Each structure stands twice: as structure tokens, then as C-alpha cells.
Amino acid sequence: xxxxxxxxxxxxxxxxxxAGATAVATVAARAEEPPVKVGMSGPFSGGLSLLGQxxxxxxxxxxxxxxxQGGVGGRKLVFIAEDxxxxxxxxxxxxxxxxxxxxxxxxxxxxxxxxxxxxLPFVTESKTPLLFPYAFSHxxxxxxxxxxxxxxPEVRVQxxxxxxxxxxxxxxxxxxxxxQNDDFGxxxxxxxxxRFGRDKxxxxxxxxxxxxxxxxxVVAQAKAAGVEHIVFLGIPKDAALVMREANxxxxxxxxxxxxxxxxxxxxxxxxxxxxxxxxxAVMEPLDxxxxxxxxxxxxxxxxxxxxxxxxxxxxxxxxxxLLAEVLKxxxxxxxxxSLVAALEGMKGYDTGLMAxxxxxxxxxxxxxxxxxxxxxxxxxxxxxxxxxAD
Amino acid sequence: xxxxxxxxxxxxxxxxxxxxxxxxxxxxxxxxxxxxWLNGYGLYLLTLTAIFAIVALGLNLLTGYAGxxxxxxxxxxxxxxxxxxxxxxxxxxxxxxxxPVGALLTTAIGAAxxxxxxxxxxxxxxxxxxxxxxxxxxxxxxxxxxxxxxxxLSLAPPTIAGHELGATGLYYLALAFLVLGLxxxxxxxxxxxxxxxxxxxESEIAAASLGIHIARYKVTxxxxxxxxxxxxxxxxxxxxxxxxxxxxxxxxxIGFLSMIVIGGLGTIGGSIVxxxxxxxxxxxxxxxxxxxxxxxxxVLVMVMVxxxxxxxxxxxxxxxxx
Lengths: 390, 322
Known about the structure:
The structure holds 2 protein chains of 2 kinds.
Chain A: H1 12-27, E1 36-42, H2 49-68, E2 77-83, H3 88-101, E3 106-108, H4 113-126, E4 130-131, E5 148-149, H5 155-169, E6 175-180, H6 183-198, E7 203-208, H7 216-224, E8 229-233, H8 236-248, E9 254-257, H9 265-270, E10 278-281, H10 291-303, H11 311-329, H12 336-344, E11 369-376, E12 379-382, E13 387-388
Parallel strand pairs in A: 1-2, 1-3, 3-4, 4-5, 6-7, 6-8, 8-9, 9-10
Antiparallel strand pairs in A: 10-11, 11-12, 11-13
Chain B: H1 4-9, H2 17-33, H3 40-65, H4 73-89, H5 95-117, H6 122-142, H7 144-147, E1 153-154, E2 159-160, E3 163-164, H8 167-190, H9 192-202, H10 204-209, H11 214-240, E4 242-243, H12 250-263, H13 268-284, H14 292-306, H15 310-318
Antiparallel strand pairs in B: 1-4, 2-3
């Protein structure tokens, strides 16, 4: 707390000095180079703690694995995670502590849409890289902000991928969107409409309020409109209710949804009714046969055996691995200009866990692609490769 | 419910005011020099404390003095934040104008809450204000064309007379409002209104029999409290520079109530100490991995068990004033 506020927050010397001091204290004489410190803020308490803890566990697994192999260019990775209970004002406090007190080089995998949005002024003014937040909002990368980089495709991009698949591959034109009437739902429907509008195909829009449990009205309306395909945009619990409602009417339309539907819990909630449903995948499913997914699950078992691999921890793990790749490309330098330059030079980098990632000075949303997965035999299986949104 | 702090506040004990003024002056002087030895993190927390202390002062007038429980103060805080932010960013008004105007708008709403409050007491009032808070929060959420809905509102730094107000400037602004708020609460609590509110808390029947216009005083308490809270909201919006409706939930209302209970109900010093506790203690507990919430809860229980009059009541006892 003794530093003057006016001091440049992330001067390279300050980072090295602070990192050096910690190296003496924690990593002892083993490390020749000072470690790279990065921080995270996320909900580790409160209603969304499963999400925050999952992402955090994933980063910790990745860092443990990288450090066990000697770190990046001899530099170990140090991770400091702070709780914000999903309250933006606490996220800012956490980020300021991490940057000004702990002198972290970057904020990694900050979890939550509102908390990430709240950090934008601070990271811009303090020139702190905000890397790979677990958030799907449009505002993070539009317009491009020098220090903000994302990997997860925002929901509008997902909807363009899904609409392409419905119109081109399934060749279905009688489609209804049953969507949660909030910012997320409206954003998603805007993405669908954009693509449907281009082919001049009407989209039946049926909103519902968050928290409702009665879907008989919207399902009956969809059936009356004669649609063959329902895009459901909401949480899996509500998706299950809609599937039940349609089943009660003896009606079997094709169901689809965004990445939240493609979760194992959809099967617990909807049972056999979920069979045949489609969802947009933003990352590989957990039971994929891909070697990168198997390696991730093995790593989590090895380094954090008390926790379970989830889609959240997969994002955290990939974020940690990506950071290591960025550091390798920057020649081990962790100052802001080096990190940004290394990131903006990333072209089609494949982690094996999601679509290849490309950044450029004009594009800080790393992946504008998703894949389609299908519910088969109680599992989600990818049925397409990574599809570009346009 | 008569306690030491109440008695100390009555006019007969005027002799103690001198030392309290010295204490207040010392506190203000310390707060004025604080930015010179704090980093951005410390300054942020101190600004947040000042803002929450303004809310606590207002809420203490309503709950601590008049005995009316409110669970809609987070929503009023949010309305103040949105009103100030929209007047500044969309209508283009100067920040120093939109702040009080936004607060006056919120005050009108606070006075409207008071109308049902005239008929309800205790838990019934709490539930009614809870509902009102949800209505306000939902209104902000649904009124997308104006508020931007659930996606929230990002704000540019405020300017005063063409100069951008940085973190230090905003801190001093919040401090100035806190000092004004302290002065207002001090005067209000020690005068006719303060005595009337305290009597209403003890017994409405007794108060009415003494000719106190209960309805008028309750509305006054709600309105003043809403004004304090809305000013704080307007400062908060530009401290965080991102506001979204979800932030102004019942949890925050309960946070505000806990501030004044921890600090000391019906005391002015307690409002500040409570806000400081609420902001700083969770930050100090960051080092405890996985369980800061648990430890914070335990600390809360201990404070209430061992210091039923709050931290401020405890401090006064140590200072030898009964």
C-alpha cells in the first residue's frame, strides 16, 4: 500500500522487482528466472461459485502441469485467484489488488459477463491484458480494445453458425425461437434473425420470462404456427420443460440451442426426450475422443484429483495453456507490449480443445466459429467440424 | 430499546459534543491526506467506504432513529446511480448538476414508498419494501431503451468544468458529500426531527399523544434517507463506471442494513465504522483461501454477540462514556 498512486502500474522493472522478491520467497533457488504472475477474479462464493471454482481449478491444473515441465523458458507461472462473488464492485477491488499490490502481468480467465464488462475501464487505463475471460458478451471485443482478448464465441456468433446449419444442411425453413426475454435472449435472437433475414425466411419469435415454469403457451403457439424446428435459448432446466410440454402434445419437432444446452445435465433433466437435439459447441465435449481432451482430463486427475473436469475447468485449462504459448512467442517477456504483440501474431493456433484461434490488431475475438453437436445415447457428439460463422 | 447511545444523543449531554467534534475533525483531516500514501487499490476501497457511509447515514436515520426497516435501499441506490448516469451520459448534463437532480428524483420515489409505510410496521414493512425494491430493479432491467437493460451501462469518466475527474478527484468529491451528509445527519438527529423520530421508534401511540405528526415524520425520514442513498448511488456509478441492474439486489440492501447494525444503530459514528467494516474486512480476509465468506460470517456473529450496540457503541464504552 506504500506505492504512490501516480506510479505507472505495470512498468517492467516493477514487475520484475516484485516477481523477483517472490521468487526468493516462494520458489527458492530452483528457478533461475523470475516467475510470471497472473491473476484471476471470479465467483468462488455465492450462487455461481461452481462456475468460478471450475474455471480456477482448470487454470491451476494447467499451471501445475506447465511448471512440472520447467515452466516457460525457465520462468515458472504463479497464479493468484480472488473471489468477487459475481459483484462488479468486488471484481474491480480484486483486479486493483492483483495489479497494484501483487503486480500481476495479466488478468487471466476472469469469470462472468458483468464482472468482465466492469473491468474494461480499469484494464484499458492501467494497460493490463485481460485474457480469455469466461464471458460471451459483444462489448468485450466490439470495438476492439487493445488489452482485451477473448476465445469463447459470443452468442450472436453461435446463432449465426446454428442458423447456417439449419438453413443449409437441414434445409428447414419453418423455425421458431423460444427465448428467455432478457439481454442474453434478445442478443441471441438478433443473431438468428440476421441470418434468416438474409435468406428472407421468417422466424417465429416466442419470448418467455426468466423464472417461469409454465411453457404450455409458447409451445402451443409454436405448434400452431406449424414449425418443424425449435431453437431454445435459455437454461437447460427450462429446455427440459419445453421438451416435456411438446411431448405432452404428442409433437416431435427438432430441438436445438446454444452452448448451454450441450451440457451433460440436459440428459439428467430431460431424459430420453433430449435425444436427437442439437447444440452449438464452443469447445470439445468432455467425452470427446480427441487426444487434447483426454490429456486435459488426465491432467486434472493428476494435479487436482479432488475436483472433476467440467466445461468450465476445460476453459480455465485452455486459458492457462494459451498463456504459456503466448509467453513462448514473446520470448518469455511478460510486459504488456510483448504480450499484446505475441497475441496479435497468433494465427490459426489449435489447442485441440476448440476451434483454431486467430488474433490480429483488428480482431481480438479469437474464434468466430462453433461446431454442431447432437444428443445421441445420452452423450453429446460433434457431428460437424468447426464452422465459421459466415 | 433505550440504550446508552440514545441517551448520549439527547440535549442534556451537550458537554460531550466538544470531544466528538475534535474526533470528527481528526477523522476528516486523516481522510484528506489518505490519498497521498495509498495506491489505487486502497483509494478505491476508501472511496467505496465513503460512498457506503453516506448510504449508512441515510439508512440509519430511517432504521436506527425512526425504526423503519427498509429492504429497498439497494434499489434506491441503483435508481440514484442510473438517474445520475443517464442525465450525465445521455442528456449531457454536468456531473455536479445531474448528481443532485438524480438524487431528488430518487427522493420523490422514496417518499412514494413511504405512503404504504404509513400503514405497515416491522416485518410487514420489510416485506413491502422488499417488493418495492424488486419492482424498481425490474423496471431498470426492462426499460431497455433508456437503461440498456441487463447488459449494463459503461460510463466515461465524469468531468467537472472541463476537467476529467480521476480517482483522487472522485474520492475528494465523495468525501465532501460525506462531510455534508454528516453535518446534515448531526443537525437532523439532534433537533426536533431526531427527537420525534426516536419517539416514533419507541412508541407511535406515545408520539402521537404528544402531538407528533407521525405520517409527516415518517415520510420525511424515508425521503431524506432516499436522498442520501441516491447521492451515494450517483457517486458509485462513476467510481465503478459500469452499472447493471443485477448489482442492486436484495443482497446489497441486506448489506446496507448490516452496516448500520454492525456499526451501531441510531449513531452517526456507527454509520461510518459500519461501512468501513463492510468494505475493508472482506478485503483483509482475501488471504484466507476458499473461506473468506465463512470467516466474514463468523466475525459478524461475534460482533453481534459481544457488541450488541455495534462497533461504535463498543468504542464509546472504551472511551469511558457509559
